[in-house]
Specification:
By secondary structure, this protein is an alpha+beta fold. The protein has 12 helices and 27 strands. The strands form 7 sheets. Strands 3, 19, 20, 21, 22 and 23 form a 6-stranded antiparallel beta sheet that branches. Strands 5-14-17-16-15-18 form a 6-stranded antiparallel barrel. It has a 4-stranded antiparallel beta sheet with strand order 6-13-11-8, with no helix packed on it. α9 packs antiparallel against α10.
Protein backbone atom coordinates (compact mmCIF):
# COMPACT_ATOMS: atom_id res chain seq x y z
CA UNK A 1 0.00 0.00 0.00
CA UNK A 2 2.81 2.31 0.93
CA UNK A 3 4.46 1.53 -2.40
CA UNK A 4 1.37 2.63 -4.34
CA UNK A 5 1.20 5.86 -2.38
CA UNK A 6 4.79 6.64 -3.42
CA UNK A 7 3.92 6.06 -7.14
CA UNK A 8 0.85 8.30 -6.90
CA UNK A 9 2.95 11.01 -5.26
CA UNK A 10 5.55 10.87 -8.02
CA UNK A 11 2.84 11.17 -10.71
CA UNK A 12 1.30 14.21 -8.99
CA UNK A 13 4.70 15.90 -8.68
CA UNK A 14 5.42 15.17 -12.37
CA UNK A 15 2.13 16.65 -13.49
CA UNK A 16 2.74 19.74 -11.39
CA UNK A 17 6.24 20.28 -12.79
CA UNK A 18 5.00 19.72 -16.33
CA UNK A 19 2.25 22.25 -15.91
CA UNK A 20 4.70 24.77 -14.54
CA UNK A 21 7.15 24.14 -17.39
CA UNK A 22 4.59 24.49 -20.19
CA UNK A 23 2.88 27.42 -18.54
CA UNK A 24 6.20 29.27 -18.38
CA UNK A 25 6.90 28.40 -22.03
CA UNK A 26 3.44 29.57 -23.08
CA UNK A 27 3.87 32.72 -21.03
CA UNK A 28 7.24 33.39 -22.69
CA UNK A 29 5.73 32.82 -26.14
CA UNK A 30 2.81 35.05 -25.28
CA UNK A 31 5.17 37.73 -23.99
CA UNK A 32 7.21 37.53 -27.16
CA UNK A 33 4.10 37.71 -29.36
CA UNK A 34 2.71 40.55 -27.29
CA UNK A 35 6.04 42.36 -27.58
CA UNK A 36 5.98 41.87 -31.35
CA UNK A 37 2.39 43.08 -31.55
CA UNK A 38 3.30 46.06 -29.43
CA UNK A 39 6.11 46.92 -31.79
CA UNK A 40 3.68 47.07 -34.72
CA UNK A 41 0.83 48.60 -32.73
CA UNK A 42 -0.82 51.72 -34.19
CA UNK A 43 -3.00 54.10 -32.18
CA UNK A 44 -6.18 55.77 -33.39
CA UNK A 45 -9.06 57.94 -32.19
CA UNK A 46 -12.49 56.39 -31.62
CA UNK A 47 -14.12 59.53 -33.07
CA UNK A 48 -11.63 60.11 -35.89
CA UNK A 49 -10.40 56.77 -37.28
CA UNK A 50 -8.35 58.50 -39.99
CA UNK A 51 -5.83 59.36 -37.25
CA UNK A 52 -3.05 56.75 -37.12
CA UNK A 53 0.02 57.18 -34.88
CA UNK A 54 2.75 54.76 -33.86
CA UNK A 55 2.56 55.91 -30.20
CA UNK A 56 -0.27 56.62 -27.72
CA UNK A 57 -1.27 60.20 -27.00
CA UNK A 58 -4.06 62.71 -27.67
CA UNK A 59 -6.09 63.03 -30.86
CA UNK A 60 -4.82 66.08 -32.80
CA UNK A 61 -8.43 66.89 -33.79
CA UNK A 62 -10.57 66.47 -30.67
CA UNK A 63 -8.00 65.87 -27.90
CA UNK A 64 -9.42 62.49 -26.80
CA UNK A 65 -7.07 59.72 -25.65
CA UNK A 66 -5.95 57.49 -28.52
CA UNK A 67 -6.80 53.79 -28.35
CA UNK A 68 -5.02 50.76 -29.90
CA UNK A 69 -6.05 50.35 -33.53
CA UNK A 70 -7.49 46.96 -34.38
CA UNK A 71 -6.25 45.11 -37.41
CA UNK A 72 -8.66 45.54 -40.30
CA UNK A 73 -10.71 42.64 -41.42
CA UNK A 74 -8.98 42.87 -44.76
CA UNK A 75 -5.53 42.61 -43.18
CA UNK A 76 -4.25 45.79 -44.86
CA UNK A 77 -1.57 47.99 -43.39
CA UNK A 78 -2.36 51.52 -42.19
CA UNK A 79 -1.57 53.29 -45.49
CA UNK A 80 -2.87 50.62 -47.84
CA UNK A 81 -6.29 50.61 -49.48
CA UNK A 82 -8.11 48.32 -51.85
CA UNK A 83 -10.22 48.89 -54.97
CA UNK A 84 -12.66 46.52 -56.55
CA UNK A 85 -11.98 45.26 -60.05
CA UNK A 86 -15.18 47.00 -61.20
CA UNK A 87 -14.04 50.34 -59.76
CA UNK A 88 -10.68 50.00 -61.50
CA UNK A 89 -12.37 49.30 -64.82
CA UNK A 90 -14.77 52.24 -64.52
CA UNK A 91 -11.95 54.65 -63.63
CA UNK A 92 -9.70 53.20 -66.36
CA UNK A 93 -6.90 52.69 -63.84
CA UNK A 94 -3.84 51.15 -65.46
CA UNK A 95 -0.61 49.92 -63.89
CA UNK A 96 2.78 49.06 -65.31
CA UNK A 97 5.79 47.22 -64.03
CA UNK A 98 8.81 49.52 -63.82
CA UNK A 99 10.84 46.86 -65.63
CA UNK A 100 8.32 46.89 -68.50
CA UNK A 101 8.31 50.70 -68.46
CA UNK A 102 12.07 50.88 -68.78
CA UNK A 103 12.08 48.29 -71.56
CA UNK A 104 9.73 50.53 -73.56
CA UNK A 105 11.87 53.65 -73.10
CA UNK A 106 15.31 54.55 -74.30
CA UNK A 107 17.08 55.85 -71.23
CA UNK A 108 19.70 57.57 -73.34
CA UNK A 109 17.26 59.66 -75.38
CA UNK A 110 15.42 62.85 -74.47
CA UNK A 111 12.22 63.61 -76.39
CA UNK A 112 11.25 67.22 -77.05
CA UNK A 113 8.04 68.73 -78.38
CA UNK A 114 8.35 71.59 -80.84
CA UNK A 115 6.81 73.66 -83.58
CA UNK A 116 7.87 74.78 -87.06
CA UNK A 117 8.16 78.55 -87.47
CA UNK A 118 9.45 80.83 -90.22
CA UNK A 119 13.17 81.43 -90.46
CA UNK A 120 13.33 85.01 -89.22
CA UNK A 121 16.67 85.49 -90.96
CA UNK A 122 14.89 84.93 -94.30
CA UNK A 123 11.93 87.30 -93.80
CA UNK A 124 11.69 90.51 -95.87
CA UNK A 125 9.21 93.35 -95.47
CA UNK A 126 8.14 95.05 -98.70
CA UNK A 127 7.59 98.74 -97.93
CA UNK A 128 6.22 101.75 -99.78
CA UNK A 129 9.24 103.86 -100.77
CA UNK A 130 7.01 106.86 -101.41
CA UNK A 131 3.69 108.04 -100.01
CA UNK A 132 0.38 107.78 -101.87
CA UNK A 133 -2.79 105.77 -102.43
CA UNK A 134 -2.83 102.08 -103.37
CA UNK A 135 -4.79 101.99 -106.61
CA UNK A 136 -4.24 98.31 -107.31
CA UNK A 137 -2.98 95.42 -105.15
CA UNK A 138 -2.00 92.34 -107.14
CA UNK A 139 -1.75 90.07 -104.05
CA UNK A 140 -5.18 88.78 -103.03
CA UNK A 141 -4.33 86.62 -99.99
CA UNK A 142 -1.61 85.40 -97.68
CA UNK A 143 0.22 82.28 -98.78
CA UNK A 144 0.68 83.40 -102.39
CA UNK A 145 4.08 82.78 -103.91
CA UNK A 146 6.00 85.73 -105.31
CA UNK A 147 9.24 85.95 -107.26
CA UNK A 148 11.76 88.74 -107.36
CA UNK A 149 10.71 91.46 -109.82
CA UNK A 150 7.03 90.45 -109.77
CA UNK A 151 4.48 93.28 -109.86
CA UNK A 152 2.91 93.60 -106.42
CA UNK A 153 0.95 96.86 -106.48
CA UNK A 154 0.37 100.22 -108.18
CA UNK A 155 0.45 103.41 -106.14
CA UNK A 156 -0.74 106.89 -107.09
CA UNK A 157 1.68 109.36 -105.52
CA UNK A 158 1.24 113.11 -106.14
CA UNK A 159 4.75 113.68 -104.81
CA UNK A 160 6.28 111.12 -107.17
CA UNK A 161 4.21 112.49 -110.08
CA UNK A 162 5.66 115.97 -109.45
CA UNK A 163 9.18 114.53 -109.23
CA UNK A 164 8.75 112.87 -112.63
CA UNK A 165 7.72 116.21 -114.16
CA UNK A 166 10.86 117.77 -112.63
CA UNK A 167 12.87 115.04 -114.37
CA UNK A 168 11.35 115.84 -117.77
CA UNK A 169 12.05 119.56 -117.28
CA UNK A 170 15.62 118.90 -116.08
CA UNK A 171 16.22 116.53 -119.02
CA UNK A 172 15.73 119.41 -121.46
CA UNK A 173 18.38 121.40 -119.53
CA UNK A 174 20.89 118.61 -118.87
CA UNK A 175 23.49 120.10 -121.21
CA UNK A 176 23.31 123.59 -119.68
CA UNK A 177 22.54 122.52 -116.08
CA UNK A 178 23.89 118.98 -115.62
CA UNK A 179 24.05 119.35 -111.82
CA UNK A 180 20.30 120.01 -111.63
CA UNK A 181 19.61 117.09 -113.95
CA UNK A 182 21.72 114.67 -111.87
CA UNK A 183 20.13 115.90 -108.62
CA UNK A 184 16.64 115.13 -109.92
CA UNK A 185 17.69 111.65 -111.05
CA UNK A 186 19.29 110.93 -107.66
CA UNK A 187 16.09 112.02 -105.92
CA UNK A 188 14.17 109.35 -107.84
CA UNK A 189 16.83 106.76 -107.03
CA UNK A 190 16.34 107.47 -103.33
CA UNK A 191 12.72 106.38 -103.84
CA UNK A 192 14.09 103.09 -105.19
CA UNK A 193 13.41 103.79 -108.87
CA UNK A 194 15.84 101.86 -111.05
CA UNK A 195 17.97 103.36 -113.82
CA UNK A 196 15.78 101.55 -116.33
CA UNK A 197 12.59 103.07 -114.90
CA UNK A 198 14.08 106.58 -114.86
CA UNK A 199 15.30 106.23 -118.48
CA UNK A 200 11.85 104.96 -119.58
CA UNK A 201 10.17 108.00 -118.02
CA UNK A 202 12.68 110.32 -119.68
CA UNK A 203 12.39 108.66 -123.13
CA UNK A 204 8.58 108.52 -123.08
CA UNK A 205 8.30 112.15 -122.09
CA UNK A 206 5.28 111.39 -119.88
CA UNK A 207 5.11 110.84 -116.10
CA UNK A 208 3.60 107.57 -114.83
CA UNK A 209 0.32 108.18 -112.92
CA UNK A 210 0.00 104.85 -111.04
CA UNK A 211 3.55 103.82 -110.28
CA UNK A 212 4.33 100.05 -110.12
CA UNK A 213 5.87 98.39 -107.04
CA UNK A 214 7.95 95.24 -107.72
CA UNK A 215 9.01 92.47 -105.32
CA UNK A 216 12.51 92.82 -103.95
CA UNK A 217 12.81 89.09 -103.04
CA UNK A 218 11.25 85.73 -103.81
CA UNK A 219 9.17 83.82 -101.26
CA UNK A 220 5.68 83.37 -99.81
CA UNK A 221 3.44 86.18 -98.59
CA UNK A 222 3.12 85.51 -94.86
CA UNK A 223 1.28 88.73 -94.01
CA UNK A 224 -0.74 91.23 -96.05
CA UNK A 225 -0.62 94.60 -94.30
CA UNK A 226 -2.67 96.86 -96.62
CA UNK A 227 -5.74 96.76 -98.82
CA UNK A 228 -6.64 98.52 -102.07
CA UNK A 229 -7.58 102.15 -101.48
CA UNK A 230 -5.41 102.52 -98.37
CA UNK A 231 -3.25 105.63 -98.09
CA UNK A 232 0.34 104.87 -97.18
CA UNK A 233 3.28 106.96 -96.11
CA UNK A 234 6.89 106.55 -97.14
CA UNK A 235 8.23 103.44 -95.38
CA UNK A 236 4.79 101.91 -94.63
CA UNK A 237 4.97 98.06 -94.70
CA UNK A 238 2.86 96.57 -97.50
CA UNK A 239 3.68 92.85 -97.41
CA UNK A 240 5.79 90.45 -95.34
CA UNK A 241 7.50 87.89 -97.56
CA UNK A 242 9.06 84.75 -96.09
CA UNK A 243 11.58 82.55 -97.83
CA UNK A 244 10.58 79.02 -96.73
CA UNK A 245 13.54 77.24 -98.31
CA UNK A 246 14.70 76.90 -94.71
CA UNK A 247 12.62 76.94 -91.52
CA UNK A 248 13.21 76.84 -87.78
CA UNK A 249 12.05 74.13 -85.42
CA UNK A 250 11.66 75.62 -81.93
CA UNK A 251 11.61 73.14 -79.03
CA UNK A 252 10.75 73.73 -75.36
CA UNK A 253 13.45 72.61 -72.94
CA UNK A 254 12.48 72.41 -69.27
CA UNK A 255 14.61 74.00 -66.59
CA UNK A 256 15.92 70.69 -65.25
CA UNK A 257 16.94 69.59 -68.78
CA UNK A 258 19.08 72.57 -69.75
CA UNK A 259 22.35 70.89 -68.79
CA UNK A 260 21.64 68.10 -71.29
CA UNK A 261 21.96 70.35 -74.36
CA UNK A 262 24.69 72.28 -76.15
CA UNK A 263 25.12 74.09 -79.45
CA UNK A 264 25.98 71.77 -82.37
CA UNK A 265 24.30 68.73 -80.78
CA UNK A 266 22.51 66.44 -83.25
CA UNK A 267 18.70 66.38 -83.17
CA UNK A 268 16.51 63.81 -84.97
CA UNK A 269 13.29 65.53 -86.04
CA UNK A 270 10.05 63.68 -86.87
CA UNK A 271 6.55 64.88 -87.74
CA UNK A 272 3.11 63.30 -87.89
CA UNK A 273 2.79 64.39 -91.52
CA UNK A 274 5.67 62.08 -92.50
CA UNK A 275 5.88 59.50 -89.68
CA UNK A 276 8.25 57.21 -91.57
CA UNK A 277 10.86 59.92 -92.19
CA UNK A 278 13.57 61.27 -89.89
CA UNK A 279 15.36 64.57 -90.50
CA UNK A 280 18.77 65.27 -89.00
CA UNK A 281 19.67 68.76 -87.81
CA UNK A 282 21.97 70.43 -85.30
CA UNK A 283 21.22 72.75 -82.41
CA UNK A 284 21.87 76.27 -83.71
CA UNK A 285 20.66 78.33 -80.77
CA UNK A 286 19.71 77.92 -77.09
CA UNK A 287 17.84 80.89 -75.64
CA UNK A 288 19.85 82.38 -72.75
CA UNK A 289 16.66 83.69 -71.08
CA UNK A 290 14.24 81.40 -69.21
CA UNK A 291 10.52 81.92 -69.77
CA UNK A 292 9.12 82.55 -66.28
CA UNK A 293 5.60 81.47 -67.25
CA UNK A 294 6.49 78.03 -68.66
CA UNK A 295 9.89 77.54 -66.94
CA UNK A 296 11.40 76.58 -70.30
CA UNK A 297 13.99 77.86 -72.74
CA UNK A 298 13.78 77.72 -76.53
CA UNK A 299 16.10 75.37 -78.40
CA UNK A 300 16.32 75.96 -82.15
CA UNK A 301 17.40 73.91 -85.13
CA UNK A 302 17.45 75.02 -88.79
CA UNK A 303 15.82 72.63 -91.30
CA UNK A 304 16.32 72.52 -95.05
CA UNK A 305 12.89 72.96 -96.62
CA UNK A 306 13.51 73.26 -100.37
CA UNK A 307 10.95 70.49 -100.96
CA UNK A 308 8.32 72.30 -98.87
CA UNK A 309 7.90 69.42 -96.41
CA UNK A 310 7.69 71.59 -93.29
CA UNK A 311 4.85 74.07 -92.88
CA UNK A 312 4.98 76.87 -90.27
CA UNK A 313 2.68 75.91 -87.41
CA UNK A 314 3.34 72.17 -87.82
CA UNK A 315 4.09 70.22 -84.60
CA UNK A 316 7.30 68.17 -84.56
CA UNK A 317 9.16 65.93 -82.15
CA UNK A 318 12.89 66.00 -81.51
CA UNK A 319 15.08 63.22 -80.13
CA UNK A 320 18.42 64.08 -78.56
CA UNK A 321 20.95 61.75 -76.98
CA UNK A 322 21.50 62.42 -73.30
CA UNK A 323 24.79 63.75 -72.03
CA UNK A 324 25.74 61.02 -69.55
CA UNK A 325 27.26 62.00 -66.20
CA UNK A 326 28.87 60.01 -63.41
CA UNK A 327 25.85 60.66 -61.19
CA UNK A 328 23.43 59.09 -63.68
CA UNK A 329 24.05 55.74 -65.26
CA UNK A 330 22.27 53.74 -67.90
CA UNK A 331 20.34 51.76 -65.27
CA UNK A 332 18.26 54.77 -64.15
CA UNK A 333 14.60 54.08 -63.45
CA UNK A 334 12.28 55.90 -65.85
CA UNK A 335 8.52 56.26 -65.33
CA UNK A 336 5.80 57.96 -67.42
CA UNK A 337 4.98 61.55 -66.42
CA UNK A 338 1.33 60.48 -66.03
CA UNK A 339 2.32 58.42 -62.98
CA UNK A 340 3.62 61.42 -61.01
CA UNK A 341 1.66 63.78 -58.76
CA UNK A 342 3.23 66.99 -57.45
CA UNK A 343 2.39 68.55 -54.08
CA UNK A 344 4.53 71.61 -53.47
CA UNK A 345 8.01 70.29 -52.77
CA UNK A 346 7.11 66.61 -53.01
CA UNK A 347 6.56 64.22 -55.90
CA UNK A 348 4.51 61.09 -55.25
CA UNK A 349 3.39 57.98 -57.12
CA UNK A 350 1.06 55.12 -56.27
CA UNK A 351 2.37 51.58 -56.24
CA UNK A 352 0.44 48.35 -56.41
CA UNK A 353 1.45 46.63 -53.17
CA UNK A 354 0.23 43.13 -54.03
CA UNK A 355 0.74 41.65 -57.52
CA UNK A 356 -2.47 39.57 -57.52
CA UNK A 357 -4.80 42.06 -55.80
CA UNK A 358 -5.70 45.72 -56.45
CA UNK A 359 -4.12 47.01 -53.22
CA UNK A 360 -2.34 50.37 -53.43
CA UNK A 361 -0.32 52.78 -51.34
CA UNK A 362 1.35 56.14 -51.88
CA UNK A 363 5.12 56.43 -52.27
CA UNK A 364 7.17 59.63 -52.20
CA UNK A 365 9.90 59.76 -54.86
CA UNK A 366 12.85 61.99 -55.80
CA UNK A 367 12.85 62.89 -59.49
CA UNK A 368 15.76 63.70 -61.77
CA UNK A 369 15.56 65.01 -65.35
CA UNK A 370 12.45 64.94 -67.49
CA UNK A 371 13.04 63.07 -70.74
CA UNK A 372 10.19 63.72 -73.14
CA UNK A 373 7.09 62.25 -71.49
CA UNK A 374 9.11 60.38 -68.85
CA UNK A 375 10.83 61.17 -65.57
CA UNK A 376 14.01 59.77 -64.14
CA UNK A 377 13.54 58.49 -60.56
CA UNK A 378 16.59 58.96 -58.35
CA UNK A 379 15.09 57.64 -55.12
CA UNK A 380 11.93 55.95 -53.85
CA UNK A 381 11.28 53.08 -56.28
CA UNK A 382 12.73 49.68 -57.04
CA UNK A 383 12.93 48.21 -60.53
CA UNK A 384 10.64 45.26 -59.68
CA UNK A 385 7.71 47.37 -58.41
CA UNK A 386 4.42 48.12 -60.18
CA UNK A 387 3.08 51.69 -60.44
CA UNK A 388 -0.18 53.36 -61.47
CA UNK A 389 0.31 55.12 -64.84
CA UNK A 390 -3.28 56.08 -65.68
CA UNK A 391 -6.04 57.29 -63.35
CA UNK A 392 -3.54 58.50 -60.73
CA UNK A 393 -5.77 61.31 -59.50
CA UNK A 394 -8.67 58.88 -59.10
CA UNK A 395 -6.47 56.62 -56.99
CA UNK A 396 -5.43 59.61 -54.86
CA UNK A 397 -9.05 60.67 -54.36
CA UNK A 398 -9.90 57.12 -53.24
CA UNK A 399 -7.06 57.17 -50.72
CA UNK A 400 -8.27 60.51 -49.38
CA UNK A 401 -11.88 59.32 -49.07
CA UNK A 402 -10.75 56.21 -47.18
CA UNK A 403 -8.72 58.33 -44.75
CA UNK A 404 -5.42 56.94 -46.04
CA UNK A 405 -2.19 58.81 -46.68
CA UNK A 406 -2.60 60.69 -49.96
CA UNK A 407 -1.24 63.60 -51.94
CA UNK A 408 -3.81 65.85 -50.28
CA UNK A 409 -3.58 64.30 -46.80
CA UNK A 410 0.08 63.53 -46.09
CA UNK A 411 0.69 62.05 -42.63
CA UNK A 412 3.65 64.15 -41.52
CA UNK A 413 3.04 64.36 -37.79
CA UNK A 414 0.22 64.17 -35.26
CA UNK A 415 -0.18 67.96 -35.35
CA UNK A 416 -0.68 68.43 -39.06
CA UNK A 417 -1.97 65.04 -40.07
CA UNK A 418 -5.08 66.45 -41.74
CA UNK A 419 -3.41 69.40 -43.43
CA UNK A 420 -3.44 69.59 -47.23
CA UNK A 421 -0.39 70.46 -49.23
CA UNK A 422 -0.42 72.80 -52.21
CA UNK A 423 -0.43 71.04 -55.57
CA UNK A 424 2.04 72.51 -58.08
CA UNK A 425 0.05 74.49 -60.65
CA UNK A 426 0.21 73.87 -64.39
CA UNK A 427 0.22 77.01 -66.54
CA UNK A 428 -2.89 77.02 -68.76
CA UNK A 429 -4.75 79.46 -71.01
CA UNK A 430 -6.75 82.08 -69.07
CA UNK A 431 -9.81 81.17 -71.18
CA UNK A 432 -9.68 77.64 -69.74
CA UNK A 433 -9.43 79.06 -66.21
CA UNK A 434 -12.50 81.22 -66.84
CA UNK A 435 -14.47 78.21 -68.09
CA UNK A 436 -13.41 76.20 -65.03
CA UNK A 437 -14.53 79.09 -62.82
CA UNK A 438 -18.07 78.79 -64.23
CA UNK A 439 -18.05 75.13 -63.12
CA UNK A 440 -16.85 76.26 -59.68
CA UNK A 441 -19.59 78.93 -59.44
CA UNK A 442 -22.22 76.22 -60.07
CA UNK A 443 -20.50 74.04 -57.46
CA UNK A 444 -20.97 76.84 -54.90
CA UNK A 445 -24.70 76.84 -55.70
CA UNK A 446 -24.76 73.10 -55.01
CA UNK A 447 -22.81 73.53 -51.78
CA UNK A 448 -25.20 76.23 -50.55
CA UNK A 449 -28.21 74.03 -51.36
CA UNK A 450 -26.77 71.22 -49.21
CA UNK A 451 -26.04 73.70 -46.42
CA UNK A 452 -29.72 74.71 -46.54
CA UNK A 453 -30.90 71.05 -46.62
CA UNK A 454 -32.60 71.66 -49.98
CA UNK A 455 -32.34 68.56 -52.15
CA UNK A 456 -34.42 70.01 -55.04
CA UNK A 457 -32.11 73.01 -55.47
CA UNK A 458 -29.13 70.65 -55.15
CA UNK A 459 -30.46 68.60 -58.10
CA UNK A 460 -30.80 71.73 -60.23
CA UNK A 461 -27.30 72.93 -59.29
CA UNK A 462 -25.83 69.54 -60.21
CA UNK A 463 -27.47 69.90 -63.63
CA UNK A 464 -25.83 73.32 -64.04
CA UNK A 465 -22.43 71.76 -63.28
CA UNK A 466 -22.97 69.15 -66.01
CA UNK A 467 -23.91 71.89 -68.47
CA UNK A 468 -20.87 74.03 -67.54
CA UNK A 469 -18.54 71.05 -67.89
CA UNK A 470 -19.75 70.55 -71.45
CA UNK A 471 -18.63 74.08 -72.32
CA UNK A 472 -15.06 73.66 -71.07
CA UNK A 473 -12.82 73.58 -74.15
CA UNK A 474 -10.23 70.85 -73.66
CA UNK A 475 -8.39 72.04 -76.80
CA UNK A 476 -7.12 75.03 -74.81
CA UNK A 477 -4.85 72.62 -72.88
CA UNK A 478 -1.69 72.35 -74.98
CA UNK A 479 0.33 70.47 -72.34
CA UNK A 480 -0.15 66.68 -72.48
CA UNK A 481 -0.07 66.32 -68.68
CA UNK A 482 -2.72 69.02 -68.27
CA UNK A 483 -4.87 67.42 -70.99
CA UNK A 484 -4.69 63.94 -69.44
CA UNK A 485 -5.41 65.17 -65.92
CA UNK A 486 -8.42 67.23 -67.03
CA UNK A 487 -9.92 64.22 -68.82
CA UNK A 488 -9.84 62.34 -65.48
CA UNK A 489 -11.24 65.28 -63.51
CA UNK A 490 -14.04 65.93 -66.01
CA UNK A 491 -15.12 62.31 -66.01
CA UNK A 492 -15.23 62.07 -62.20
CA UNK A 493 -16.90 65.46 -61.65
CA UNK A 494 -19.54 64.70 -64.27
CA UNK A 495 -20.18 61.25 -62.80
CA UNK A 496 -20.67 62.68 -59.28
CA UNK A 497 -22.87 65.55 -60.54
CA UNK A 498 -25.02 63.06 -62.48
CA UNK A 499 -25.42 60.94 -59.36
CA UNK A 500 -26.54 64.00 -57.35
CA UNK A 501 -28.98 65.05 -60.06
CA UNK A 502 -30.56 61.57 -60.16
CA UNK A 503 -31.36 61.09 -56.45
CA UNK A 504 -33.80 62.87 -54.15
CA UNK A 505 -32.44 61.81 -50.74
CA UNK A 506 -30.18 64.58 -49.48
CA UNK A 507 -27.91 62.17 -47.57
CA UNK A 508 -27.12 60.33 -50.81
CA UNK A 509 -26.49 63.65 -52.51
CA UNK A 510 -24.02 64.55 -49.74
CA UNK A 511 -22.25 61.23 -50.23
CA UNK A 512 -21.68 61.99 -53.92
CA UNK A 513 -20.72 65.57 -53.02
CA UNK A 514 -17.65 64.18 -51.20
CA UNK A 515 -16.32 62.71 -54.44
CA UNK A 516 -17.24 65.78 -56.48
CA UNK A 517 -15.46 68.10 -54.02
CA UNK A 518 -12.34 65.95 -54.01
CA UNK A 519 -11.89 66.00 -57.79
CA UNK A 520 -12.90 69.64 -58.29
CA UNK A 521 -10.45 70.67 -55.54
CA UNK A 522 -7.64 68.82 -57.30
CA UNK A 523 -8.59 70.46 -60.63
CA UNK A 524 -8.66 73.97 -59.16
CA UNK A 525 -5.37 73.44 -57.34
CA UNK A 526 -3.78 72.19 -60.56
CA UNK A 527 -5.19 74.79 -62.99
CA UNK A 528 -6.42 77.72 -60.88
CA UNK A 529 -9.46 79.96 -61.40
CA UNK A 530 -7.94 83.36 -60.49
CA UNK A 531 -9.98 83.64 -57.28
CA UNK A 532 -9.26 83.13 -53.58
CA UNK A 533 -10.98 79.95 -52.41
CA UNK A 534 -11.05 78.28 -49.00
CA UNK A 535 -10.66 74.53 -48.60
CA UNK A 536 -12.58 73.48 -45.49
CA UNK A 537 -12.67 70.21 -43.59
CA UNK A 538 -15.10 68.39 -41.32
CA UNK A 539 -13.63 65.43 -39.36
CA UNK A 540 -17.09 64.01 -38.60
CA UNK A 541 -18.24 63.68 -42.23
CA UNK A 542 -17.87 60.55 -44.37
CA UNK A 543 -18.46 58.16 -41.45
CA UNK A 544 -15.87 59.96 -39.30
CA UNK A 545 -13.20 59.63 -41.99
CA UNK A 546 -13.43 63.35 -42.68
CA UNK A 547 -14.27 65.21 -45.89
CA UNK A 548 -13.34 68.49 -47.58
CA UNK A 549 -15.38 71.07 -49.46
CA UNK A 550 -14.71 74.42 -51.16
CA UNK A 551 -16.08 77.78 -50.09
CA UNK A 552 -15.81 81.48 -50.89
CA UNK A 553 -16.09 82.46 -47.20
CA UNK A 554 -13.98 81.65 -44.17
CA UNK A 555 -17.13 81.22 -42.08
CA UNK A 556 -17.89 77.51 -41.75
CA UNK A 557 -21.23 76.37 -43.13
CA UNK A 558 -21.14 72.58 -43.29
CA UNK A 559 -22.77 71.05 -46.42
CA UNK A 560 -22.50 67.51 -45.00
CA UNK A 561 -24.73 68.11 -41.96
CA UNK A 562 -26.64 71.34 -42.67
CA UNK A 563 -28.56 72.63 -39.65
CA UNK A 564 -27.61 69.57 -37.57
CA UNK A 565 -23.96 70.70 -37.26
CA UNK A 566 -23.78 73.86 -39.36
CA UNK A 567 -20.52 75.17 -37.90
CA UNK A 568 -18.61 71.87 -37.61
CA UNK A 569 -15.26 72.12 -39.40
CA UNK A 570 -12.33 74.42 -40.02
CA UNK A 571 -10.44 76.16 -42.83
CA UNK A 572 -7.50 73.99 -43.87
CA UNK A 573 -6.09 75.89 -46.83
CA UNK A 574 -6.45 79.05 -48.90
CA UNK A 575 -6.18 78.36 -52.63
CA UNK A 576 -4.89 81.48 -54.36
Amino acid sequence: MKKYLIYVGLIVVGLFLGKMLFTNSSTNDSTENHSEEKTNQMWTCSMHPQIMQPEPGDCPICGMDLIPAESGADGLEADQFKLSENAMALANIQTMSINDSNNQMDGNTIKLSGKIVENEDAISVQTAHFGGRIERLHISSEGEKVSKGMLLARIYSPELYAAQQELLTAASLKKTQPALYNAVRNKLKIWKLSEKQINNIESSGKPITNFPVYANVSGVVSMKMVEEGNHVMEGTPILKISNLNSVWANFDVYENQISQFKKGQEVIVTTNAYPAKEFKAKVSFIDPILDNATRTVKLRVVLNNRKGIFKPGMFVEGKVKRIMSSAVDKQSILIPASAVLWTGKRSVVYIKSTPDEPIFEMREVTLGSKMGENYEVLKGLESDEEIVVNGTFTIDATAQLQGKKSMMNQNKSSKDITEKEVVSRISVDSKFQNQLKVVFDDYIKLKNALVNDNSDVAKDAAGLIISSLGKVDMKLLKDNTAHTNWMTFEKEIKSSANSIANVVEIEKQRGHFIHLSSHLTSAIQLFGVNQEIYSEFCPMANDNKGAYWLSLEKEIKNPYFGDKMLNCGSVKETIE
